[in-house]
Design brief:
Protein name: ABM domain-containing protein
Distance between the termini: 18 Å
Structural class: alpha+beta
Radius of gyration: 17 Å
Order of helices and strands: EHHEEHEHEHEEHHE
Strand content: 25-35%
Number of strands: 8
Shape: globular
Strand order of the largest sheet: 1-3-2-8-5-7-6-4
Largest sheet: 8 strands, antiparallel, barrel
Organism: Gymnopilus junonius (Spectacular rustgill mushroom)
Helix content: 25-40%
Length: 200
């Protein structure tokens, strides 16, 4: 499977006023060898906003070549969009991410293994809930997950939804309660919902 770069940061006031200021950076990224797809969009809550960027690379080496450029990261041109430091990780997802990233709303789960828990504990809980979600939400299946290259205890999962309301309705339904409980016992997590736009 291709490797996915996930970047996120607090958007600048300039971006919030005019989100088209990210376009030159995305136009540049589309030209980089090995870049397959790009998705970008905003996650909002009552207390904070986060700008997400997902880049699907053919291999990690393709992104590594870009990062090795002496002018990186300034040459990418994301600076005007950023109101904070940019966080970046790389995830080897087990299934195709395009279905979940192309949905009207994308649930993004950043997860860390609980103390004493293993990858196998996460897989047991995660696979059970993923199968249930794919049955309940087939339009945007599959649920997909992957471990980060930077930390073997950290995982990301993406799930596509028609709306935040559908997400809440399905995830709080009675059949999912045991699987959700098992997952919470295996990992701590931070959940975001973003409306992503595909640029390439």
């Amino acid at each position: 499977m291709p490797l996915v770069e996930i970047a996120w940061w607090t958007p600048s006031e300039a971006y919030l006023a005019d989100n088209s200021i990210i376009k030159p950076a995305l136009d540049f990224l589309k030209t980089v060898e090995g870049c397959k797809h790009i998705y970008s969009g905003l996650s909002e809550t009552d207390t904070d906003k986060t700008l997400f960027l997902f880049i699907v690379w053919e291999t990690y080496d393709h992104h590594a070549a870009l990062m090795a450029h002496p002018d990186y990261p300034q040459n990418v041109g994301l600076g005007p969009t950023a109101g904070s430091e940019v966080s970046v990780t790389h995830v080897a997802f087990t299934k195709d991410v395009d279905a979940s990233l192309s949905a009207p709303v994308t649930e993004i789960l950043a997860m860390t293994l609980q103390e004493g828990k293993t990858k196998e504990d996460f897989l047991k809980a995660g696979q059970a809930i993923a199968e249930q979600l794919d049955l309940a939400n087939p339009k945007h299946a599959p649920v997909t997950w992957g471990r980060t290259l930077e930390d073997e205890k950290k995982f990301f999962t993406t799930v596509g939804w028609d709306s935040a309301e559908v997400h809440k309705e399905v995830i709080t339904s009675a059949p999912l309660v045991p699987s959700r409980t098992e997952l919470r016992n295996a990992v701590t997590f931070h959940m975001s919902r973003a409306k992503l736009v595909k640029y390439a």
